[in-house]
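Practice problem 4.
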């Protein structure tokens, strides 16, 4: 299992920031889901077997 974390200190939260993060997740081939107002996760399908990886 791999876990990637990003500390985004000083980033102003808002609809524009969340949209940018969602677009970044799409560029990585994944989908962004919010766990709560401060924590999100990106789910990626990796490889031919489409193994689900949460980053």
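Answer key:
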């Amino acid at each position: 299992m791999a876990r990637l974390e990003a500390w985004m200190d000083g980033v102003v939260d808002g609809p524009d920031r969340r949209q940018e993060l969602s677009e970044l997740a799409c560029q990585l081939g994944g989908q962004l889901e919010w766990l709560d107002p401060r924590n999100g996760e990106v789910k990626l399908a990796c490889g031919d077997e489409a193994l689900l990886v949460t980053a």
